[in-house]
Amino acid sequence: MEVLARLAAAAADPAEAKNIAAAGSAGFAYGLAAIGPGIGIGIIFGNAIEAMARQPEAAGMVRTTMFLGIAFTEALALIGFVVFILLKYA
Amino acid sequence: MTSDQPSPFTTGLSGPAPEMSVSRDLVKRGLLVLPLLCLVAGVIWGMNGAYSCAFAVVLVLLNFLLAALIMAWTAPISLALMMGASLFGYLARLGLIFLAVIVVKDFSWVSLQALGCTIIVTHLGLLFWELKYISASLAFPGLKPGKQESSPVQP
């Protein structure tokens, strides 16, 4: 109830309401940006494990490409994070 | 999966960890381009930009090293553990980067624009640089016979 009361009080001040909306939107966008890479890393890992189980002799090559694939996928989350930081604090 | 195939829950990967050599390459190249990146950031955003750029490059390199360490540490134990550790490691590393930026964001030497741009540019740039090298290694393995992991053919 206290949070609702504070939100109602903040809504009376347009600048404060805008700040709250910006913070909420930035956090929501960052959360959304982290979902995709999480799914992507899961897919990469699942397929890599299947490949390593089928061909253990190719495990070195699979691990190398898997590591790079995961790092590329993480770049999406980092971009979302940077956008969040710039929207929220810059 | 049929019963004659090994279970990923009990199968570990022995041998050298290729992700450690990849991350070492990334760190070497990152340290190599660090002065250039700081110079560019300094020209665009001033001294604060240069400091922020250096911080961002260190952050990205530590992120690569940590990711490789997690995989190299869990791979000999079990494939399933490696998958779980990498997925939770992804969340943990994102959290650590978030924490590192939140801690320094109010310091006087921090330029958030420089920090953000450098994180993205360094991460993607180093990966593309390494990808070029890895692609060449996979396409023409004979060019680097000393780096191959395959065992020699027995007579």
List keywords for this structure.
heterodimer; A: 90 residues; mainly alpha; F1FO ATP Synthase; B: 155 residues; 4 helices; 71% helix; flat
What's this model, at a glance?
The complex is a heterodimer of chains A (about 90) and B (about 160). Chain A is mostly helical. Helix content of chain A is about 90%, strand content about 0%.
How would you describe the overall organization of this protein?
The complex is a heterodimer of chains A (90) and B (155). In chain A, helix 1 (2-12) packs across helix 2 (14-54) and helix 2 (14-54) runs antiparallel to helix 3 (59-89). In chain A, 92% of the residues lie in helices and 0% in strands. The two termini of chain A are 32 Å apart. Chain A has a single domain, classed as Up-down Bundle (F1FO ATP Synthase). Chain A has 90 residues and is mainly alpha-helical. Chain A has 3 helices and no strands. Chain B has 155 residues and is an all-alpha fold. The longest helix of chain B has 28 residues, at 18-45. Chains A and B meet through helix 2 and helix 3 of A and helix 1, helix 2, helix 3 and helix 4 of B.
List the helices and strands and how they pair.
The complex is a heterodimer of chains A (90) and B (155).
Chain A: H1 2-12, H2 14-54, H3 59-89
Chain B: H1 18-45, H2 47-74, H3 79-104, H4 112-139
Helix pairs in contact in B: 1-2, 1-4, 2-3, 2-4
Give the count of structural domains of chain A.
Answer: 1
What CATH architecture label of chain A applies?
Up-down Bundle
The chain-level structural class of chain B is mainly alpha
Give the chain pair forming the largest contact, with residue counts.
A-B, 36 and 49 residues
